[in-house]
Design a protein that fits this description.
Blueprint: H1 2-10, H2 12-23, H3 35-51, E1 55-60, E2 67-72, E3 80-86, E4 106-108, E5 111-113, H4 121-138, E6 144-150, H5 160-166, E7 175-178, E8 190-192, E9 194-195, E10 197-206, E11 212-213, H6 224-233, H7 256-263, H8 269-276, H9 289-294, E12 298-306, E13 316-317, E14 320-329, H10 335-349, E15 355-364, E16 367-368, H11 374-387, E17 392-394, H12 402-410, E18 414-416, E19 432-434, H13 435-453
Parallel strand pairs: 3-6, 3-7, 7-18, 8-17
Antiparallel strand pairs: 1-2, 2-6, 4-5, 5-19, 9-16, 10-14, 10-15, 11-13, 12-14
Bound molecules: ligand BES and zinc ion (ZN).
The site of ligand BES has 15 residues, from strand 15.
Length: about 450
């Protein structure tokens, strides 16, 4: 173990240079003009996986972007890790808010700034380097490992569930490892044992066949922007409770034990408001900020579009209005059931004055594990060794739908081994990864394989 850690320490700077090469590839899965970059990124990952000593490395085609596969299965009798990560990234707009170019990774104040640095290339790369250190120093790994890297995570993983089902036989393992989440706070490493689920919709309203003069028609024809606002305003009450009938039926109530544990976490609401420029927090009454984001569902408007939004003024009655909305779900809410309740409620609150179209988009189930399970405890020890500090146990508000797929389709538990930070700017301008966390994360990943080797 010592010589593996020595190797990681000695190679610290080289890792940053290599990671920069990976971050230079604009593998934006949402934008068709970047399809070739996405493919190139998959190939870069495959080449890297060969370089570090993985075997059977190949791109596996899906109806969308390829999955990169590679394994090392030489640890007879030891457990097998199924590692999941993604090589695609989010778009970069608004580009003018970036302080350095998103695909020219720049180190400032101990942070690597680039699109994908935290979500998820930097965190995947940690594991590459942990594998490399073992292979270079000992010629083997303490566990068997199968890597699958997806290229469509940021657009909803449309083909991943089918991929998992189709390759059920090859994906057999003991535990899934994923590094695609933040830790609790700077200097506070954590182990995450729960994620929220998601259902996402687009709502389109049409009030007339064309935009109308608001003087000639205003007051006599329903305004779809107004109707949409009124409909959306009925989704939540002033106390932050969602008004869709039946929405809370399957929500597992927060346990006293969890509430107590979370209340003792070093969360500072004043700092939270300051860091994110929030005048006053808002959420479901009766719950704290951590409880609201980790253990309670929410309904959010992700985007709104209607009418004239250019400079100046234009007197118009828009013909259409559109909203993107989503609901984060908690155990045991089922996305299909919630989707149905939502669609029914939209019909209920929609007046006859407009045409309404509701389109369901991506989503996934919530996930929760018991934090005393042996894999999460083993991962906690690895975090402690890598970061010199015992982790706190947390849930997260974000979603990684494949986690529940691995549980349901393959019967596999997951370990969320994330080293990002809450202010990493994922999906936003100036995404960054802390250089120290990246380095400690490589050591912790190496420790993780060692710890997991003893879980059987
Ligand atoms: N890395 C995130 C997931 C995440 C975010 C986990 C915050 C824990 C805390 C991932 O890349 C992501 O953005 N997931 C999407 C999933 C969606 C597209 C189905 C999300 O949460 O919005
Ligand atoms: Zn993401």
């Amino acid at each position: 173990m010592d010589k593996v850690i020595d190797f990681i320490n000695v190679n610290r700077d080289r890792y940053l240079d290599e990671l920069k090469a990976l971050l230079a590839i604009p593998s934006i899965s949402a934008l068709p003009e970047h399809a070739a970059d996405v493919k190139r990124c998959a190939e870069w990952c495959a080449d890297e996986m060969r370089r570090i000593g993985l075997q059977n490395v190949r791109l596996i085609d899906t109806p969308g972007n390829p999955v990169v596969y590679g394994d090392w299965l030489g640890a007879a009798g030891a457990p097998t890790i199924l590692f999941y990560g993604h090589y695609d990234v989010q778009p970069v707009d608004p580009i003018d808010l970036w302080e350095s170019p998103p695909f020219d990774a720049t180190i400032r104040d101990g942070e690597i700034y680039a699109r994908g640095s935290a979500d998820d290339k930097g965190q995947v790369f940690m594991h590459f380097k942990a594998v490399e250190a073992y292979m270079k120093q000992t010629g083997r790994l303490p566990v068997n490992i199968k890597f699958i890297l997806e290229g469509e995570e940021e657009v909803g993983s449309a083909h991943l569930d089918d991929f998992v089902r189709a390759h059920r036989g090859e994906l057999g393992a003991d535990v899934v490892v994923i590094s695609d989440s933040p830790m609790f706070a700077r200097g506070v490493p954590s182990m995450c044992y729960g994620l929220r689920g998601l259902v996402y919709f687009q709502i389109d309203l049409r009030g007339s066949s064309t935009d109308l003069h608001s003087g000639s028609f205003g007051g006599a024809v329903a305004n779809p922007a107004m109707v949409l606002s009124q409909m959306l305003a009925q989704m939540k009450d002033r106390g932050g409770r969602i008004r869709i009938p039946g929405f809370y039926d399957d929500v597992v109530p927060l346990q006293d034990e969890e509430r107590k544990a979370w209340a003792s976490l070093p969360f500072n609401e004043r700092k939270y408001k300051k860091d994110f420029g929030i005048p006053k927090v808002f959420g479901e009454s009766g719950y704290t900020t951590l409880e609201r984001t980790w253990a309670r569902p929410t309904f959010e408007i992700n985007g709104l579009l209607s009418g004239f939004t250019g400079e100046g003024a234009k007197t118009v009655l828009p013909a259409v209005a559109m909203a993107k909305v989503s609901m984060r779900l908690v155990p045991n809410q089922d996305p299909d059931k919630i989707a149905k309740l939502f669609e029914e409620y939209v019909r209920e609150v929609a007046p006859k004055t407009v045409e309404v179209k509701v389109t369901r988009m991506h989503g996934g189930k919530p996930w929760m594990a018991s934090y005393d399970n042996p894999f999460i405890q083993a991962a906690g020890r690895a975090i402690e060794k890598g970061f010199g500090q015992k982790p706190v146990f947390t849930r997260e508000g974000g979603s990684i739908p494949v986690v529940s797929t691995f549980q349901e389709e393959l019967g596999l538990p997951s370990v969320l081994f994330g080293v990002g930070l809450p202010d990493e700017n994922a999906h936003a301008p100036n995404e960054k990864l802390d250089v120290g966390n990246f380095h400690n994360g490589i050591i912790a990943s190496a420790m993780l394989y060692d710890e997991l080797s003893r879980t059987r």
